[in-house]
Amino acid sequence: MAAAALPTTVVLRADSSKKYYLRYVHQGGDKHQCMESSGETVLSPFAKLELECAKDTPAAQGLFHIRCCSNNRYLQLAQANKETNKIDPRIVAAAKSPEEDQSKTTCTLFKVTVLSDDPTAPGGRQLSINLLHVNLNQYAHISSSPDSKYGSCLFVGDTAQDSDRAFHVTNWESLVFLPKYITFKGENGRYLSAYEGKYGHRLGFRVDEIGDPTVGFEISANHDGTVRIKSMDTGLFWQYTTSTMVVPWASGEAGTDDDDETTFFQPVKVKDNAIALRTVSPHRNYCSTMLSGYKNEDELHAMDRNVTRFAQLEVAEFVISRKIYNVDFRLTEGRIYNHNVVVKGKGVAVNSTEKPNTASVRLSYRDVKSSSWRAGLSLKVGVKSTLSVGLKILKIFKMRGQLELSAQLAGSYHWGETDDEASRVETTYQVVVPPMSKVTVAAMACTATCDVSFSHTQHDTLYNGRQVISVVDGGIYTGTQSYDMKYETKVEKLAS
């Protein structure tokens, strides 16, 4: 398969493990920076990997750098033992930059070979690959040694290509990350409500007010990205019944059975604020309202084979207010990119005498800094949050591309929005102007963007009055700014 057909961001699961996903070990200890087959959910931010095509070889060769998005490091061999110089076959997320010299053990290139690909599989595309470490010419695999302290970690060491070393690929972009507490609005403009009907519990688009206690739903994500949905009013889970093709409330013990696939639904993003929900078993139909004119037309059914306008559900958070605090940046794992040198401002000094002259050139320019905070959600339905972060701008050191924290911030902010801060800067530069000359002074600066992951504590007040405090991982701070100001001069002789 051509390299271009592979997803850009992926989650990997060894075919030998039907349950656990490959994840970055961030907790420290002996396994720190290892890639371990222990991730319990495909939605974990520590499982997200990015495939970057090699720059110096044709894409058709299938050579990629693999970047761990959680710590912004590339996968490479662990450092060799300093005493014996023996190669350490562990694969760790430790390289700060890609290395394409295939003769070096620090080479970060992997050859990706597609073993099987079924884009029409009922549960979504089924893609399986091998990973060959280019420098060692050995395949990656999961250690199965129960005695090793690195058991279940990613190693290289096999020269044979077979299915035992295969990895199942999930396209990260196909996953939908939903807020914990949400509401659904249907095609008729009304909220989905849990109510007691003539024949038992039902779901219907019949409420106009988001604060109604019957419209709040709690999302529980399964390990594969499917979800279970529970009414916050009744405490019962959604369930798909094959007899009526309707999604009623799960009754009795069925709604609390974690393995009952009739309570599983696959979210599919259709807009920035809307999804479709597809049943998992026994049929893969989309939930929707009935066409106008049908009996009980406002009830939720699961009969659509495609995402019709009746199957598009607008999502909003069931949250009145939110406070964010205890933001913990992982500065050592920050990523700085998009380096550019730009001219900030110019000034001119003229000396029309026969002697050198020292002049003060005044420069004025507009300096813009931007910041954005992104939670790990797929939809733009975030509640306006009160931040008590204490730190807003991540300042880039001008010498070594390192990061430091500065600038106090408190106030209201929407997750995902970009906050631009512009200021007028005036500076003076002393320059010696030769006789009968003109000197142009240009203020030059580097601009760059940084991405830094963070965790935070979140305090939500729900519409039903419930207070929920949780620690949330997977946030990304992005900042763009100028640094390392320098001045360049250009001397021109005046016309005689």
Automatic annotation (TrEMBL):
It comes from the Eukaryota. InterPro entries: Agglutinin, Agglutinin_dom_sf, Natterin_C. Gene3D superfamilies: 2.80.10.50, Proaerolysin, chain A, domain 3 (2.170.15.10). Transmembrane segments: none annotated. Residues 176-317 form the Agglutinin domain. Pfam families: Agglutinin (PF07468). PANTHER family: NATTERIN-3-LIKE, NATTERIN-4. This is Agglutinin domain-containing protein. It comes from Linum trigynum.
